Amino acid sequence: MARPVKEINAGSMADIAFLLLIFFLMVTTMDIESGLQRRLPPMPDENQKQDDIQVNRRNILVVRLNDSDGLLAGGEMMNVTMLKDKAKEFLLNPANDVSLPEKEEKIIEGFGPFQVSKGVISLQNTRGTSYKAYIEVQNELVKAVNEIRDDFAMVNFGKKYIALDEDRQRIVRDAIPQNISEAEPKDTGRKR
Prior knowledge:
Strand order of the largest sheet: 3-2-1-6-7
Radius of gyration: 27 Å
Shape: elongated
Distance between the termini: 77 Å
Helix content: 25-40%
């Protein structure tokens, strides 16, 4: 004689599945997005009249990366390790060289008058530029600005930029702006 088949109570199975789901949500790490941290300028007002701003050529340092990751900065071929020093010399213009950027005296709130560089670094690359080379160049340019900011902060406040309070960091940013412009990548037609 056959015995009747007993049913398994599925109510506790749902509880176990729910607990496992909670466990995996708690212990699983999510990938953190990484990328370049940039603050974009605000969108212009639609009613604002657009003026063509003429920028003096001496105020622009053109940095170009080609398909084979060759670096050209200010008309000179160079290694990426030399770029930081080139950018610092360009932005600081310590000897007031007429081929380097002009300086404009600005009144910085909470600090007073300061000669601020009008220098802009224009980064241009091709579509064939490797991501690695692009990031290395970006890092060197940002490192140059950060070192100038640290030097300014040490001289004027006795601390590095990152250790300053928000008001003093704003003063340093106003005195040493990070003017890095990126152009749309150019298509050279070469396939990699």
